[in-house]
Amino acid sequence: MRGLLRTLTRSPKGLAGVCLTCLFICTALFAPKVAPFDPNRQDLLSALVPPGLAHADTGFHPFGTDALGRDVFSRVVFGTRVSLVVGTMAVAASLAIGVPVGVLGGYSGGLTDDVLSRLTDTLMSLPFLVVALALMAVLHPLLANIILVLAITSWAPYARLARSQTLGVREMDYIEACHATGAGVTRILWRHVLPNVAIPVLVVASLQVGTMILAEASLAFLGVGVQPPLVSWGSMAADGWSYLRSAWWVATFPGLGISLVVLGLNLFGDALRDVADPVTRRYR
Question: Which CATH number fits domain 2-33+64-282: 1.10.3720.10, 1.10.8.60, 3.10.450.50, 2.60.120.330?
Answer without folding.
Answer: 1.10.3720.10
